[in-house]
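Human: Cast an eye over this sequence-structure pair and say how the chain folds.
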Amino acid sequence: MRLLARYPISLAIVLAAVAATAGVFLFEHVQNRQPNQRVVSLAHVRYYSPAQVRQAFARHGITLRYTSTALPGLWLSNTPLPVPTAGLYVMLAGKKGTVSWGPKTGSEYDQPIGNIDVHYGGGDAHVLDAVSAAVSELR
C-alpha cells in the first residue's frame, strides 16, 4: 500500500492506459456485432464458382470479363478495376470461414447469395433487370 501512496501519478497513468485499452476492445466488439452486418458462414451456404457466375450473367447479356485477385477474394466485373460505385461487380468468397458483406447499402442493388455478393450502383433499368435476372437464376 505504501508503494501505491508513493507513486500516485504513475498508478493513475497505468490505470488510464488499461481503461483505454479495454475501451478499444469493447468498442471493436460492439462494432463487429452490429445487426446490419451481413455475415455469412461459408460452410453453410451454396458455393458458386466463377464459371457459374459468368455463365449466369452471360445468359442475360452481361459479360463479366475482368477478374481481379488484388483485393480480398475474387472480383468479377464488366469494366476494369477500379470499378466505380455506379458499376457492376461480383465479389466471390471461398468455401471456408466467414465473410462479412458489410451493411446493406441504400439505393444501390447489393444482393448477397451463397458465397457471392452482387453489386450494381448504376441507374440503367435494363442492366438492373439483367443483373436481377442473373441473380434469380443463380438462386
Observations:
- The chain has a mean pLDDT of 81.
- Residues 45 and 138 are 13 Å apart (CA to CA).
